[in-house]
Every structure is written in C-alpha cells, then in structure tokens.
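Thought: the user asked what V-type ATP synthase beta chain looks like in 3D. I have the sequence; next I should run the structure tool and report back without guessing.
Action: structure_tool
Action Input:
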Amino acid sequence: MAVIKEYRTVSEVVGPLMLVEDVQGVRFNELVEIRLHNGEFRQGQVLEVQEDKALVQLFEGSAGINLASAKVRFTGKPLHLGVSEDMVGRVFNGMGEAIDGGPDLIPEQYLDIDGQAINPVARDYPDEFIQTGISAIDHLNTLVRGQKLPVFSGSGLPHKELAAQIARQATVLNSDENFAVVFAAMGITFEEAEFFMNDLRETGAMDRSVLFINLANDPAIERIATPRIALTTAEYLAYEKDMHVLVIMTDMTNYCEALREVSAARREVPGRRGYPGYLYTNLSTLYERAGRIIGKKGSVTQIPILTMPEDDITHPIPDLTGYITEGQIILSRDLYNSGYRPPINVLPSLSRLKDKGSGEGKTRYDHAPTMNQLFAAYATGKQAKELAVVLGESALSDVDRKYIEFTNRFEEEYINQGFYTNRSIQETLDLGWELLSILPRTELKRIKDDMLDTFLKPAE
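Observation:
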C-alpha cells in the first residue's frame, strides 16, 4: 500500500486556488486534504498537474491559510459520496454532509461524484408520461421520464414556487415503482432554503425527497460540486434501487458564475461574456446524466432551473442549455405582472419529447390534437389582441372577438391555476375542451370530426 505523503510546499494561494510544489505521483481530480496551523481541516481537488506542481481548487475557501505551516495530503482518489437509501427524507449541505440534525448515515457504498456518461447504446428512449399537475406543462409541453427539460426564468420571477410545486406534485402514472425527488439548490439565500424545506415538510413531500442546499454565503467552489453530488445520489436511487428520480437543480446561473470565478482565478482566456470556453462541455457533463438505461427499471429525469440575466434568452447560459436539453419551459414577466401564476409563456416553450409521452395508453387519445389546437388558437388570439390595439375594437370580425375571449379565458383559467392546484391530465384535457368550445366549430381545423363529436360541448 502506497504511503500518503504530506507536503509543506504551498507556494501561492490566489482566491479559491492553491499551488503546491515538489509533488510526486499526483493525478488530476484527486481529493486533497489541507491541515491548517490551528488544526482545522479543509478539502480541495486537483485541477491541474504540471511536472512537479499541482494546482488545487479549495472547497471551503482560502481565508486563514498560512503558506508556511499548511500541510497538504493527496489522497489518491477522487471526491466520493457515501450513498444509502436512508438519504431520502434528509437535508444535506452542498458537499453532501447532513445538516438536518438527524443520525449519521451508514453508507452502502461510496461513489465518485463525477459519475460516468451513459453509453448511448445502453440508453432507453424516454417515452413515459410524468404528471406534474400543471396544465401548461402536462398538456402543452409534456415532461417524459428520462428527459431533461429546463425552466428559463428571470430575476424576481416565481421559479422557486414552481420548483416546489413540481417537487410536491410530480408522479408517474400507472406505475408501482417508487418515485423520489432529488433537489439541488446552488447559491440560494437562507430565506429560499427555508422556503423549500418548509414547503416540502408541510405538504409531506419531504418523505420522498433528498435536499442538497448550497447557500449564497457558502464557497463558490462548493457550488461546482453540489449538482454532481445530487446527480450521483439520483443515479444510485434510480439504477441501484429502481426508483423514478426527478432531479430539480436551481439555480444553474449561480453554478455557471462559480465556474467563471474559478476560470478567472486560473487566468484562463475568457470566452463569451467572460464565461470559460468550456462552459458547453461542462454543462453537458451534468445534463447528459439524465436518462433511462435498457434493462433497468429506474430513471433520472432533470428539471434544471436558470435565471436569464436581464431576461436575455441569447445569454450564454440559457443559449447553451437549450442546445443540450430537450426543450425549455419559459416564464413570462408580462404574465407575472398581470397576476397569473405560474406565469408560463406557452408559445415559446417547448418539450421536444412531448409526442413520445402522450396519447392512447399514456394520457388520452385526444391529447395531441387538443394540444395543437390550443397552441394555434392562443397564437391567433394573441395576434387579434395586437390588431385591436393598432386598429381598434371596431375593426375586428366576430371570429376575432371569439379568439380574444378564448385567449383571455385561456390565460385566466388554464395557465393561471396557482401554485397549490394539482390537476390530473384528465382534468386538464377536459378544461381544454371547455375553452375550445368558445370558438366556432369551423375554426377547430386540427381536430378530426369524430373526436369533436365525442368531446366538444355544443355551443349554447
């Protein structure tokens, strides 16, 4: 067995980085233990090795480190997380240490937090419907088991309420397998952390949830580890314990800011808007850990949440996230200001796998036609409202007025369901039909006649 050496050759500390010289046999990504002069222990990870120098990224920050007396040990293994089924119902910090006052975990195994990419040949196609209880998602932008579907929000919009609602309500229909929610919060305030914990406890959803909370005052470096620790837990519960796991990660923007901070400390050449050039690759190592595996019952489904700086969808973070993931749910500031909750902007939102998770045997056979018709009618109604602003109400035809009535009621009744209403997919579909009955039957061109005969209520 190799002897672990202790080095006292720290030559430089810059921000979250430490340079150790005269090292031997050190490998990229291995875990580092630093003992300070006062006996305190800190952890880090090897970022770069060049000849006999090692660059170490510190998890707990560099404040108080004395270069002359700090002792550094390279453990020879990457950062591991001890996992167990008992993690469900518990709250951990961003590094995977329990902070809820409960008993210590007895790990069943230790897993490398970087995980492994799923072999594309071993992937099973996502095609099972997940019901979130939110009409604008379930019906119009269906979430499918094994999918990654991000929420694009903006500063001050209620994405935390939406995240908590999905965590409470999400369920796989017609399935006897266990469902769990892994919640990773990065760089959030203490107030937001309390909101998530209290909301899940009060509604009983805590019993099937695992929370990892990295607060805004925690070191930025910890933020880089938090989503990986959460995904390692999710993969263990999914592929070892046959659970359906929904991973909600908020806020990915804080994660990317932490990457930028480390990149700047390393004096790397910045990419777009100062973010590192490898931002796309780095994000993909997180998002691509969602999926189903052939022969395994469990699955990992992801809902990453990010706030778009200045509501700019072309910003690098939402831009690159949109490339990697299968669609996006976009929150609208206009709907929010009008008092609609959740303020989901239906028209630019998209779930690329919605056709695979809906229809006969999954939801109901009228799902896709009503979805297409609602989209079309809402878009037409929006145009009619803009026309009315330019030309005045008198320039509108009777059909245009019907579309405006439909659009107003669609926003008021369908989108604006509130954060504590849990609608089944059947209730959502029935509501969709009720709203479509406002329009003349001749306008419902995306639905076949026999389906209209079955579901459409005659106009009064």
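Thought: the tool returned a structure. Summarizing for the user.
Final Answer: Structure for V-type ATP synthase beta chain predicted. Residues 136 and 415 are 6 Å apart (CA to CA). Residues 4-76 form a domain with the Elongation Factor Tu (Ef-tu); domain 3 fold (CATH 2.40.30.20).
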